[in-house]
Write a structure and sequence with these properties.
Helix content: 25-40%
Structural class: alpha+beta
Shape: globular
Order of helices and strands: HEEHEEEEEH
Distance between the termini: 18 Å
Number of strands: 7
Length: 127
């Protein structure tokens, strides 16, 4: 199964519009799922990885051309929640990948699915 298929299966019936997996530098999207594709450029992923690793995360991130405001971080899992109006963006990364999950649901409601996804990706060998 492809990473796109795995991503769709891992997220199941979660409340999300689009989710994607990128290499840590943002150069390659190797998995995506959802009906509402975001136009993400490599520099946005690379910048988001650097931003969430510092206090700059409090200034927000730009992903898919949209500037999202920082809301909270699940410090145990390293998952960061951002929001723009009614649209949420959850972002996390490992040593070799970055993941974005977008949706119209409240970010706290999406957080459980993001935690499960990150745990499942680690179990599948994605670090």
């Amino acid at each position: 199964m492809s990473w796109s298929g795995n991503l769709k299966a891992y997220l199941g019936n979660s409340s999300y519009d689009y989710a994607c997996l990128y290499t840590i530098d943002g150069k390659n999207c190797f998995g995506e799922s959802g009906a509402t594709k975001e136009n993400i450029v490599d520099s946005e992923i690379a910048c988001a990885v650097k931003t969430v690793a510092s206090d700059q995360k409090f200034q927000g991130v730009t992903v898919g051309g949209t500037k999202y405001v920082f809301l909270t971080t699940n410090t145990e899992q390293g998952i960061h929640a951002f929001k723009k109006k009614s649209k949420a963006c959850l972002f996390f990364h490992g040593a070799a990948y970055a993941c974005c999950i977008f949706g119209e649901a409240e970010p706290r409601l999406m957080m459980t699915s993001a935690i499960e996804l990150k745990t499942t990706l680690a179990g599948a060998g994605l670090q």
